[in-house]
Every structure is written in structure tokens, then in C-alpha cells.
Amino acid sequence: MSETILYIIPSDPYWQPDQAASSRAVALIEELCPDALGDIETDESDAPAFIDGAGLDSLSCPRCGTQLDFHGWWMARMDEAYRDSSVSSLAVTVPCCGTDTTLNDLVYNVPSGFARFRVTVWSPNRRMLDDEELTRISDALGHPVRQIWSLI
Ligand SMILES: [Zn+2]
């Protein structure tokens, strides 16, 4: 049986909160997920980690909308980004229209993204966060946030 996981991440893949901001955000997320069946925890990493939403299987160009090759082109770019353990750059140039962008800005078929800080809610047992809730979390953290729903 799979478990649902809600990730809340800063919109900037490199941004990290200080301890006070992190604690404020976690306290609010606990309040917003009163029926969570699992733990609510934070993770930080030196390099941006990729968080894939449930059902991720395609992506497209943020500039022209062309569908990009998921298993070929994208997997190769991900391998390149992670070959250097510091992941110094998420920069990519899309093959469709030659636009310089980043792996974080590609349009994934389900919300997915990179982060050096994340709050993880195991089995949140609730619906998606609405815009007002996301705004409250952003205010607590001091940075805009996104939600990613995943399954393991
Ligand atoms: Zn394009």
C-alpha cells in the first residue's frame, strides 16, 4: 500500500529559512493538518533535491510549450545536474526553442520542483492546501511556498 506525502517547499530552490522561521512554519502546518496520520518534519540539504509529484511522467517547455523528451533529454539533464554533488547549476537550454532556463522552471505535468528546505507531512489526511493556507504558510516562513503531493 502506498503512502501519501505532502511536501511544502520554498519557490526558490536555493532558499533556506532560519530556525525561527522554520519552527513558525511547522507550527502552522501542524495546525493546518490536524488529522495527519504521520509525522511532520523538516529536511535541509546543501544541494537542491528534486521532489517529484505523484504521476510525474512528462514535461514541457516553459517558453513555447513543446513537450520535451522525458526519458531521454530530461533524464540526461538530471544526470548531469547530479554528477557534480554540489549541483552548482540547474541551468538547462531546451532543445525546442533554445531558451535558457532551469530544471526547476520546466513545466512538469504534476507539481514538482527542487528545494534545499522542505517540510514533509506524512499521510496528511486532508485535501490540497488552498491559496489562503499557502499564503499563511508563506508569511510564516518568510518566503513564497509551493505544495507537492507525492506517493511512496
Ligand atoms: Zn521551447
Notable traits:
152 residues; alpha+beta; Alpha-Beta Plaits; four-stranded antiparallel sheet; 3 helices; 26% helix; 32% strand; globular; binds zinc ion
Uncertain residue segments:
none
Mean pLDDT across the residues is 95
Main sheet: strands, sense, barrel:
4 strands, antiparallel
Helix-residue proportion: 25-40%
Question: How would you write the strand order of the largest sheet?
Answer: 2-8-1-9
Quick one: how many beta strands?
9
**What overall geometry do the principal axes of the alpha carbons give?**
globular
Could you name the CATH class of the largest domain? Alpha Beta
Helix/strand structural class: alpha+beta
Straight-line distance between termini: 9 Å
User: How do the helices and strands follow one another from N- to C-terminus?
Assistant: EHEEEHEEEEHE
Number of self-contained structural domains:
2
Quickly give the CATH architecture of the largest domain. 2-Layer Sandwich
CATH fold label of the largest domain:
Alpha-Beta Plaits
Separate helix tally: 3
| Residue fraction in strands | 25-35%
Rounded to an integer, what's the Rg over CA atoms?
Answer: 16 Å
Bound molecules: zinc ion
